[in-house]
């Protein structure tokens, strides 16, 4: 993570003095964005850089669902299966993806291209069913739009 | 995302927010200023003392839009300007209550209005730093707000000596990392301190000891978006909109089996049925309405019959036995299996419980397991009473209201649809074939998957 320190230093300028600990989550997000997951060395270096306890970092990583300690597939498909999405076909969407990719929720394809996860409400209930791929929301999904998207991602 | 503005004729009264055409640039500083943006900030900074701003917000009767409808002015009034401490205002943009997506609309389409409200609030409390805690999964909302902040810095609306008035304020845009409970104000502050998001007991209130032990006000995005409106119009004019007890408007996001899902701005006091049938076009495929979850899954559902006499304001919703909550409305059609719906809701609460309080940690999992067993055909007659018992065991015994709300949500379903649970337990199958969907775009996918398995 050391190469990211100049960026972290710029962020600090807008925080009140003494708020170093607050940077834990933004730094972890940035590290994960950079490497794809959070490695042991990242934790050691972050603890040293921010002057916080190791347990604070470990707890944060365990607590927040977006953090991962191991690499995920190239494309991370996160399907919402909360109430409104379930009422618009989320269960069928998950089954459709599972059948297409040959994996279930929580699994990664053997070629490492796709990881499928189910998530709770992503505040996109009016355009259900939906899923997040990487950072992008894909809404009002249908079998045709999902198939087209998977084809595009497989390129 | 769907903009109700584009699809529906705006029927439901005065609009504070959804009153301009959305274009490729309508969220930008230039367009916002052309619509009169940042005049409220100028007025507050140049013509009003900080305490006068708080007084105006109090006089407006503005109620919090995060779920609990707490009077905003009263919250601000607790912070003592002369205590010599730093004060912080935090915008709660964590929007995680299932069914709620109105803050996303505000963040994406009027980020400067939200930001202007935050700066005015921060001025009223004489804060040097203010925070926006935005949900980790939000991408476009984050980019729009991030751009808005940079535009505001460049235009001298943030940073040192704002508009040459001597008031300085920095804004930190802070992204969460995936946790529903971080929407709870004290959990949000723990998260802002870089820790896991565990709610904490009150007292002390957050307005006494909040972020880094300093007096802190946490307000919802929509609450803060109302502030420039109040300062521009004045409290007296603001109060002319809505009802005496619920002044102003409410952003409602509606989803589920509704013909025209999306975000709507409704003047308080608007008839509920008219909203459903005229504004939102009634139910999907002309289905009959079974019931409504009024304000996020944490509010008690109301049957079609129960909403008939009600209007969309806090007092009416309360009189009907529920709350407007976060404005996250879910319309449910006749023929939907309420046992399976309860199962989905309870799985969510179990997943999101932070695990600090025994009744919540154990209760959520226990309820989910009972519901799973009923759905799997292994229900027992005593399960219904057990579900009621666990629901009420949470009431008032937990640190935050996640546990309580889960209990209310479940007991309201049982109160209304007990016979569906009894039927499922006796016949080992759903009264409605386990249906959750009216018109399934993926019909057949489940059976195909089974065939391949
Ligand atoms: C489990 C839980 C989740 C919450 N999530 C949110 C949320 O996503 N957004 C929000 O504004 N308030 C949320 N709240 C309410 C906040 O605790 C707080 O009351 C609110 O942000 C205050 O803002 P207001 O007074 O402007 O309504 C949540 C509360 C609980 C108990
Ligand atoms: S009620 Fe549940 S979510 Fe809230 S603090 Fe207790 S255990 Fe955590
Ligand atoms: S229920 Fe899926 S986005 Fe809200």
Layout of secondary structure:
The complex is a heterodimer of chains A (155) and B (453).
Chain A: H1 5-12, H2 24-35, H3 40-50, H4 54-63, E1 75-80, H5 83-86, H6 90-101, E2 107-108, E3 114-119, E4 131-133, E5 136-138, H7 143-154
Chain B: H1 4-7, H2 29-34, H3 39-47, H4 50-60, H5 72-78, E1 88-93, H6 102-109, H7 111-124, E2 129-134, H8 140-154, E3 170-175, H9 185-192, E4 216-220, H10 221-233, H11 235-238, E5 249-256, E6 262-267, E7 270-271, H12 272-279, E8 289-293, E9 302-303, H13 304-307, E10 311-312, H14 314-319, E11 328-333, H15 338-352, H16 358-375, H17 383-393, H18 402-427, H19 445-452
Parallel strand pairs in B: 1-2, 1-4, 2-3, 5-11
Antiparallel strand pairs in B: 5-6, 7-10, 8-9, 8-11
Helix pairs in contact in B: 3-7, 3-10, 4-5, 4-7, 6-7, 6-8, 7-10, 15-16, 15-18, 16-17, 16-18, 17-18
The structure holds flavin mononucleotide, iron/sulfur cluster and FE2/S2 (inorganic) cluster (FES).
Iron/sulfur cluster (SF4) is lined by residues 181, 199, 353-357, 360-361, 398-400, 402-403 of chain B.
Provide a compact summary of the structure.
The complex is a heterodimer of chains A (155) and B (453). With 155 residues, chain A is of the alpha+beta class. Helices cover 45% and strands 13% of the residues of chain A.
């Amino acid at each position: 993570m050391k190469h990211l320190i100049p960026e972290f230093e710029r962020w600090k300028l807008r925080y009140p003095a003494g708020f170093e600990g607050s940077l834990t989550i933004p730094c972890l997000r940035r590290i994960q964005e950079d490497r794809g997951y959070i490695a042991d060395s990242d934790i050691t270096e972050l603890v040293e850089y921010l002057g916080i306890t190791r347990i604070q970092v470990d707890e944060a990583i365990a607590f927040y669902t977006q953090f991962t300690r191991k690499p995920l597939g190239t494309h991370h498909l996160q399907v919402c299966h909360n109430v409104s999405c379930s009422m618009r076909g989320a269960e069928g969407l998950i089954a459709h993806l599972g059948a297409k990719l040959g994996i279930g929720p929580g699994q990664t394809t053997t070629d490492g291209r796709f990881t499928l996860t189910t998530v709770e409400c992503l505040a996109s209930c009016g355009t259900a069913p939906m899923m997040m791929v990487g950072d992008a929301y894909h809404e009002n999904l249908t079998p045709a739009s999902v198939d087209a998207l998977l084809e595009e991602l497989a390129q | 995302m769907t903009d109700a503005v584009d699809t529906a004729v705006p029927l439901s009264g005065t609009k504070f927010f959804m009153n301009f055409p959305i274009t490729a640039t309508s969220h930008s500083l230039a367009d916002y200023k052309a619509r009169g943006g940042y005049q409220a900030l100028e007025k507050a900074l140049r013509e009003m003392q900080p305490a006068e701003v708080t007084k105006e917000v109090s006089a407006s009767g503005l109620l919090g839009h995060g779920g609990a409808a707490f009077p905003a002015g009263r919250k601000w009034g607790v912070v003592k300007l002369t205590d010599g401490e730093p004060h912080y205002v935090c915008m709660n943009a964590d929007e995680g209550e299932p069914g709620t997506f109105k803050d996303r609309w505000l963040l994406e389409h009027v980020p400067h209005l939200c930001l202007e409200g935050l700066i005015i609030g921060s001025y009223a409390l004489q804060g040097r730093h203010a925070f926006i805690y935005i949900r980790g999964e939000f991408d476009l909302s984050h980019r729009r707000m991030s751009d808005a902040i940079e535009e505001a810095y460049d235009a001298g609306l943030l940073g040192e000596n704002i508009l040459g008035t001597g008031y300085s304020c920095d804004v930190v845009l802070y992204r969460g990392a995936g946790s529903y409970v971080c929407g709870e104000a004290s959990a949000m502050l723990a998260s802002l301190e870089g820790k896991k998001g565990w709610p904490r007991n009150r007292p002390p209130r957050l307005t006494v000891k909040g972020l880094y032990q300093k007096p802190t006000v946490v307000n919802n995005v929509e609450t803060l978006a109302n502030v420039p409106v109040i300062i521009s119009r004045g409290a007296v004019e603001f109060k002319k909109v809505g009802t005496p007890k619920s002044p102003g408007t409410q952003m409602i996001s509606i989803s589920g089996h509704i013909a025209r899902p999306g975000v709507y701005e409704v003047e308080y006091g608007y008839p509920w049925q008219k909203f459903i049938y005229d504004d939102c076009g009634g139910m999907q495929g002309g289905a009959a309405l079974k019931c409504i979850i009024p304000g996020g899954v944490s509010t008690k559902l109301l049957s079609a019959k129960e909403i008939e006499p009600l209007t969309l304001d806090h007092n009416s919703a309360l009189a009907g036995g529920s709350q407007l909550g976060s404005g996250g409305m879910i319309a449910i059609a006749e023929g939907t299996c309420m046992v399976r719906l309860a199962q989905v809701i309870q799985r969510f609460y179990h997943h999101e419980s932070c695990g600090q309080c025994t009744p919540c940690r154990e209760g959520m999992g226990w309820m989910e397991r009972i519901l799973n067993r009923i759905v799997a055909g292994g229900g027992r007659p005593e399960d219904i009473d057990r579900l009621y018992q666990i629901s009420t065991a949470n009431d008032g015994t937990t640190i935050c209201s996640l546990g309580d709300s889960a209990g209310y949500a479940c007991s309201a379903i049982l109160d209304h649809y007990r016979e569906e649970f009894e039927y499922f337990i006796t016949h080992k199958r759903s009264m409605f074939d386990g249906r959750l969907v009216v018109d399934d775009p993926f019909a057949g996918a489940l059976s195909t998957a089974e065939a391949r398995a």
